[in-house]
Automatic annotation (TrEMBL):
A biological process from GO: regulation of DNA-templated transcription
Ranges for domain Nucleotidyl transferase: 49-274
InterPro entries per record: Arc_rbn_hlx_hlx, Mannose-1P_guanyltransferase, NTP_transferase_dom, Nucleotide-diphossugar_trans
CDD domains reported for this sequence: NTP_transferase, RHH_NikR_HicB-like
Organism: Candidatus Gottesmanbacteria bacterium RIFCSPHIGHO2_02_FULL_39_11
Name of protein: Nucleotidyl transferase domain-containing protein
Cited PANTHER family: SUGAR-1-PHOSPHATE GUANYL TRANSFERASE
Length: 281
C-alpha cells in the first residue's frame, strides 16, 4: 500500500482524544490512531447480514430433535439472539435468516425483528443446501455491494467495524475472521501470507496441519461471491474458499476476542460457562 506523508495541525483536546485509542498493540502510535479513525469514517457502511441457521445439529442430539441449534440458550438467551445483538451493535440491522431444519421455530421466536430493533427476513431451504447453497438463496435480497455472513451456531466477541474496514482495505472478494486453536483438525484451517489466505483446508487430518489459524464462521463478502457459488443444488462455502485463495481473492482477519463454535455438547458447555458469566456481569 503506497503512503504519503501528511502534516496536520490539531488542538490539544483533539490529540488527547486520539491518544486515547493507542493501546500499543492494535493501535501502535498517534499516526496509526489518526489513520485508523480516518479509515473508520471513510469505509462504506455495511447494513446487511445473512445468518446461516439451517443446519440439522446432528452432533447436538437429542437437544436438536425438537429445537434448532441456534435457539439453544446461553446466558438466558438463544445463540442466534447473541448474534443479532452483535450485528445491531454495529448498526447492521437488515438481517436475513437462511433457515432449514425447524426453521418455523426460529421465525416464531424472532418474528420481524422489531422487538430487537432490527429488520429480519427469512429464506427457507426446502432441502439441505449446504452453506453455499443456503447463501445463494439470499442473492436477490442483497441490496449493497458488501455484506456479512455469520454461521448461526457460534458465539463471538469481535469488532465488526474493524473487520469491515480491513476487508475494504484488502480489495478481495471475501474476508474470513480467524482465530487460533491448539487443534485445528475439527475446523477449517488456513495458511496466511501477509493478509492473504493462501491455503484453506476443511478439517485437516491430525499431523497434516499447516497452521493453528482457523475459520471462525464470520465473513465479509462482495456480491461477486455469488459468481463462485453454483446456481442450483447443494454446495459448501468451504469448497469455494480454496478457489478464492488460489485467485488471491480471500483475506484473513485475525482477532483476539472470545469465540465458541457450539457444535458439540462439550463446546455447548464451554459456551454456557463463558457467555453465561459474561452476561451476568
Amino acid at each position: 500500500m503506497d503512503r504519503q506523508r501528511l502534516t496536520i495541525t490539531l488542538s490539544e483536546d483533539t490529540l488527547s482524544k486520539i491518544d486515547g485509542f493507542i493501546d500499543g498493540t492494535k493501535i501502535r502510535n498517534r499516526s496509526h490512531a489518526i489513520e485508523y479513525l480516518i479509515n473508520q469514517t471513510l469505509t462504506p457502511k455495511v447494513s446487511q447480514a445473512v445468518i446461516l441457521a439451517g443446519g440439522r445439529g446432528l452432533h447436538m442430539r437429542p437437544f436438536t430433535f425438537e429445537m434448532p441449534k441456534g435457539l439453544l440458550p446461553v446466558g438466558g438467551r438463544p445463540i442466534l439472539e447473541h448474534i443479532v445483538e452483535l450485528l445491531r451493535e454495529y448498526e447492521i440491522r437488515d438481517i436475513l435468516f437462511s433457515t432449514g431444519h425447524l426453521g418455523d421455530k426460529i421465525k416464531d421466536h424472532f418474528g420481524d425483528g422489531k422487538k430487537l430493533g432490527v429488520k429480519i427476513s427469512y429464506l427457507q431451504e426446502e432441502m439441505p443446501l449446504g452453506t453455499g447453497g443456503a447463501l445463494s438463496l439470499s442473492q436477490k435480497k442483497i441490496v449493497g455491494d458488501t455484506f456479512l455472513v455469520v454461521h448461526g451456531d457460534i458465539l463471538i466477541d469481535i469488532n465488526l467495524s474493524d473487520l469491515i474496514t480491513f476487508h475494504k482495505e484488502q480489495g478481495t472478494v471475501g474476508t474470513i475472521a480467524l482465530t487460533s486453536v491448539a487443534d485445528p483438525s475439527a475446523f477449517g484451517e488456513v495458511a496466511l501470507n501477509g493478509s492473504k489466505i493462501t491455503k484453506f483446508v476443511e478439517k485437516p487430518k491430525k499431523g497434516d496441519e499447516v497452521s493453528q489459524l482457523i475459520n471462525c464462521g464470520v465473513y465479509v463478502f462482495e456480491k461477486d461471491i455469488f459468481d463462485y457459488i453454483p446456481r442450483m443444488g447443494s454446495s459448501l462455502l468451504e469448497d469455494i474458499f480454496p478457489k478464492l485463495a488460489a485467485e488471491k481473492q480471500l483475506s484473513g482477519f485475525i482477532f483476539s476476542g472470545k469465540w465458541v463454535d457450539v457444535g458439540t455438547p462439550l463446546s455447548y458447555e464451554k459456551a454456557i460457562k463463558e457467555w453465561g458469566e459474561k452476561d451476568s456481569k
